[in-house]
Amino acid sequence: LASLTKIIFTTTAMMSAVETQNVSLRDSVTDLLPWWPHKRVLVRELLSHSGGLPWWAPFYKSLRRVKGLENKREKLRQM
Fold this sequence. Notes:
Elements: H1 2-19, H2 29-32, H3 43-47, H4 59-63, H5 69-78
């Protein structure tokens, strides 16, 4: 259920933002997330799973050693 919730929420929220013209599917992800490391990836590519990003990474291995929620978020941004 959690994996499905992520998809349903993200798609609905992004399409709502597109409908109100707050976001364009042609926008770079870095327009929304300046820290995003992949400068050429577009919003539509992420939503259609064609952004060229790896489908899985074992983030949990690095994160389990990090204490505190904000420190974990920063570590994820770095990864």
